[in-house]
Amino acid sequence: MNNFTYSIPTKVHFGKGQIAHLGELKDSGNKVLLVYGGGSIKRAGIYDRALEILQEAGLTVLELSGVEPNPRIESVRKGVEICKKEKIDMILSIGGGSVIDCGKVIAAGACSEEDPWELVLHPEKIKAALPLYCVLTLAATGSEMDGAAVISDLEKQEKWVTASESMKPVMAVMDPEYTFSVSRKQTAAGTADIISHIFENYFTNVKAADVQARFAEGLLKTCFHYGPVALKNPEDYDARANLMWASSMAINGLIQYGAEVAWCVHPMEHELSAFYDITHGEGLAILTPHWMEFALNENTADKFADYGRNVWGIQAEDNMEISREAIRRTKEFFKEMSLPATLTEVGIDRTYFDIMAEKAEAGCQGSFVELKKEDIISIFENAL
Ligand code: NZQ
Ligand code: ZN
């Protein structure tokens, strides 16, 4: 196990009715910028409830609405402008990962003289951020408990991750009932995203990080169990609650600290989203089994076999056999969740393979199995 510093500062209020805690925002000042997306929070009644609580707490609320899935730098710039002009004290993001990510970079941009795109390209330029609060409405990215934000400039066909300790949410409200209204497509994509975050941490070359690995396997089993339950019955509280908590645990550091490895399926997927604006979790579901097939070899079979034995309960003598069966079951699972299995299904062809692979390569340095540009192209080819 590697050395690490554990720092997960987000205060979480988890469960039914926990939105009542929004009154705590007054600890950070008087003026809040409420950031949200295309209207799902209004339809679900979350918007009205939040405003009621904020007003009762005596807070002045300004708004930035219309944040896009795969949030754009233009929305971040608008938010920063409001913060500076109105002397905003804190940000409250209510929504999925896109809204929370947008809120994070607004919070950082408000404390900087740089153009926000500079803060996306150069995370080290983020020196401070306004306090960020969030109410999560979609179990997927884990943005509610991490310091990362993914922002796109679609005109340039670019989508990059930035990160800073200062962007970690101060507080997150997680009410599983708020995810009852999430569509089948987003429920499936969100589950695939959670699973991918766990895989990205689990497939590491660091030896003897057993605590992290066994946590990860438990989280994977939870997702494989509850994903289909949530698809079948969107109002199953236990399924929504377990997926929601798994989304945070997958990426908040718990299974990563001491076992660090560069991620590689995410850099590949971010190129797909940057060029084609597809749903992140769908891209991951398409690429993951092909990445696994590529990564399986004599040296990695022990790790894949751990996955097969401990998560899927596969019994066999030969680690290669267990590994192949585990990959097959992973693929089957995504199919059972009605996720797309090929790039063609989401409208992607070979046109940009070369440039996408070139851009993804740097992000894949130091991953479980090293990926070169030509390896990435072959994974894309196999996923067509
Ligand atoms: O915009 P609204 O109307 O709110 O609708 C959203 C959006 O259309 C809808 N939705 C959210 N909550 C809902 C709901 N619909 C009904 N009921 C609810 N309760 O779902 C749609 C997708 O929302 P979005 O926020 O885009 O989804 P997600 O949470 O999957 O976020 C995806 C973004 O996060 C990035 C992705 O790349 C992508 O840009 N990621 C962020 C990470 C992080 N910060 O750590 C890590 C991830 O790997 C990921 O890259
Ligand atoms: Zn992800």
Parts with pLDDT < 50 across at least 5 consecutive residues: none
* Topology, number of strands: 8
Helix fraction by DSSP (H/I, runs of at least 4): 40-55%
Which class best fits the helix and strand makeup? alpha/beta
Oligomer: single chain
Using the CA coordinates, give the radius of gyration: 20 Å
| Hetero groups | 5,6-dihydroxy-NADP, zinc ion
The global form is: globular
Order of helices and strands: EEHHEHEHHEEEEHHHHHHHHH
Task: Give an overview of the whole structure.
With 384 residues, the chain is an alpha/beta fold. The chain contains 14 helices and eight strands. The strands form two sheets. A six-stranded parallel beta sheet has the order 1-8-5-4-2-3, sandwiched between helices. Helix 7 packs antiparallel against helix 8 and helix 11 packs across helix 12. The longest helix is centred in the middle third of the chain and has 23 residues. The chain is globular. 51% of the residues are buried. Bound molecules: 5,6-dihydroxy-NADP and zinc ion. Zinc ion binds next to helix 6.
